[in-house]
């Protein structure tokens, strides 16, 4: 079922949506590994899969190739990430036409990382401008999503500012929001309350990354600015010399997060898979068994 239909029927649905994020492989070996990962995860019937877009469009062609394969060969509903920083209007327009041609109907519209070494900024500076462009030029042909940040963006931690930016994206034409990953569910609930108070009346997907080990967690949090609860950091430190125990603990911790979210009526959970299958498969398999039917609360 197309994502647009899933979103439009959100009030009637009694099950949270689940989705996966992948990134384009850069080597033949990693491409083979990702293909196997997708084959393993496909039977879990995700509501959609998203594919990231490298800084400055550095993985543009790889992203377009992968979303087309997942959509048209694997036959899973697919969402392409698209960034605007560093790209000309014509380049963005051509990318959108290519996505349309390849039957991709869903886009996560992002600003992207700021360019380095005095490279050009491009014609669009903010994600809401990209959303507005897509909505104006292609109307209802794409279902558009925007990112949001429960703990604030790395460049601006102010809650009120981040809520205002989320509101801009909705006003520009976004149909849903997807959060940055987080490890403390209390910050997610606080952020959702602020969004609801600002009448941000769209589905909000919670971003969850199953932890593999403390080194991976530290790398990711440095990139996105997510905070790490002390007890999580301490436990992973104790398990740093036992990879299997660390992996199992990460699965258990993510399960705990998902259980808290689902019990409070989360609309959907988006798994940052890092192109790996074991943790995501274990977690989603358990969730489908434990929560076969759940009302949503975070949708006005």
Distinctive features:
globular, alpha/beta, 8 strands, 300 residues, 8-stranded parallel beta barrel, TIM Barrel
Plain-language structure description:
The protein has 300 residues and is of the alpha/beta class. Helices cover 47% and strands 14% of the residues. It has an eight-stranded parallel β-barrel with strand order 1-2-3-4-5-6-7-8, surrounded by four helices. The longest helix is centred in the C-terminal third of the chain and has 21 residues, at 243-263. It starts with a helix and ends in a 10-residue tail after the last helix.
Class per helix and strand makeup: alpha/beta
Order of helices and strands: HEHEHEHEHEHEHEHHHEH
CATH topology: TIM Barrel
Number of helices: 11
Poorly predicted regions are 295-300
Which word captures the global form?
Answer: globular
The fraction of residues assigned to DSSP E strands is: 5-15%
Instruction: State the name of the first-level CATH class.
Output: Alpha Beta
How are the strands of the largest sheet arranged? 1-2-3-4-5-6-7-8
Biggest sheet layout: 8 strands, parallel, barrel
Q: Percent helix among the residues?
A: 40-55%
Seen as an oligomer or otherwise, the chain set is single chain
Gyration radius, rounded: 18 Å
Number of strands: 8
Q: What distance lies between the first and last C-alpha atoms, to the nearest angstrom?
A: 23 Å
Mean pLDDT: 91
Indicate how many domains the architecture comprises.
Answer: 1
CATH architecture: Alpha-Beta Barrel
